[in-house]
Design a protein that fits this description.
Largest sheet: none
Number of strands: 0
Radius of gyration: 18 Å
Distance between the termini: 16 Å
Number of helices: 2
Structural class: mainly alpha
Shape: elongated
Helix content: over 70%
Length: 74
């Protein structure tokens, strides 16, 4: 993907590392924001794990499995 945007070969490793760092920081930002908006306020509610944590965890796992199969076999 990064080679398609026209980066010079000499900068490929730097671009790859900074791209991955940016993606990881973006993911951490989204997770932190979600935790602050939802998890922090509702974590002690008895229904929180049953109605929020488990279904979202299953959804995230399903999407991850789909992407893995898609990238390995697709």
């Amino acid at each position: 993907m990064l080679s398609d945007v026209g980066l010079p070969r000499s900068e490929f490793l730097t671009a790859l590392l900074t791209f991955n760092l940016g993606v990881e920081l973006g993911q951490l930002s989204v997770i932190t924001l979600a935790y602050l908006l939802v998890g922090l306020w509702w974590r002690n509610k008895p229904w929180y794990h049953q109605r929020i944590v488990r279904p979202l965890s299953i959804l995230i796992a399903a999407v991850g499995c789909y992407w893995t199969v898609e990238r390995v076999f697709g």
